[in-house]
């Protein structure tokens, strides 16, 4: 009823905590709760006057448009980064190549099991959820036991590259990678990840760029084993071939990729900040 609530204001009202909390409270079903519209239509909510609704809607739609533009720019920068990455490796298509097992050390992480949760040798470890595309997400890092022998085998060093070994959503998500930079002391890694430790003739930055290019081009998905869960096994990854140009070329390529990657990261941070701001603005106008 537009005489009670303006159509342009209604979407923001329905996104408010007050509305959503009440919708959840009256939802029906235990396994898959659904909104009880019969009950919800009888609920009453305090509404500001129509002229105030109009001003609030104008502000929130303007904020929404800014956020939409932020998302579009993020997408454009990501496309540009991937395009430049693939183009950079096309330029060295004739460079010599080397299997991963010869270009560095390949190690599968250790499986989590009840016997490793005593707390006697507890150390932090990274798992598949900690490796996003090109960076580590360290907001949720768990711990389990790694005794002296296991720690020597599964400890991470600055410059190690972590690669996702398995993904339940499909082979296209197998092979995400990030460089470990010593962010967490005495950190290890779980069986859901592969660790690639490049030899001296392959810089970590270039090796990681090569892996990202292969990920975007679907090369890692093609060598993964796909059943219920897709796996990039250590055995298969060892056969993946890295281009190995001279070190000067490796450094040059990585240096040329830095500006667009920095712009992408800055824009991603802007999107995160704006998302928080949008929520705060919404909550202040429609409590």
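-> sequence recovered:
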């Amino acid at each position: 009823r537009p005489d009670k609530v303006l159509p342009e204001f209604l979407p923001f009202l329905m996104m408010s905590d007050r509305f959503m909390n009440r919708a959840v409270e009256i939802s029906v079903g235990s396994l898959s709760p659904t909104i009880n519209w019969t009950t919800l239509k009888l609920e009453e909510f305090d509404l500001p006057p129509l002229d105030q609704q109009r001003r609030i809607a104008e502000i929130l739609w303007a904020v929404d448009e800014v956020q939409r533009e932020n998302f579009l720019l993020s997408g454009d920068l990501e496309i540009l980064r991937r395009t430049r990455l693939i183009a950079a490796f096309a330029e060295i298509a004739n460079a010599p190549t080397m299997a991963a097992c010869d270009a560095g050390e390949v190690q599968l992480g250790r499986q989590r099991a009840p016997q490793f949760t005593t707390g006697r040798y507890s150390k932090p470890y990274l798992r598949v959820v900690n490796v996003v595309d090109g960076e580590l997400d360290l907001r949720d890092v768990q711990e389990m036991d790694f005794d002296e022998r296991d720690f020597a085998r599964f400890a991470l060093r600055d410059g190690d590259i972590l690669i996702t070994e398995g993904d339940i959503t499909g082979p296209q998500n197998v092979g995400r990678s990030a460089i470990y930079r010593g962010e967490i002391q005495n950190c290890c890694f779980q069986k859901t990840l592969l660790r690639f430790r490049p030899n001296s003739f392959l810089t970590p930055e270039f090796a990681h760029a090569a892996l990202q290019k292969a990920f975007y081009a679907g090369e890692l998905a093609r060598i993964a084993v796909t059943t219920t869960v897709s796996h990039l096994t250590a055995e298969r990854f060892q056969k993946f071939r890295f281009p190995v140009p001279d070190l000067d070329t490796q450094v040059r390529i990585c240096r040329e990729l830095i500006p667009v990657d920095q712009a992408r990261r800055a824009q991603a941070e802007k999107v995160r900040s704006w998302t928080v701001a949008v929520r705060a603005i919404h909550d202040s106008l429609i409590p």
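The radius of gyration is 25 Å.
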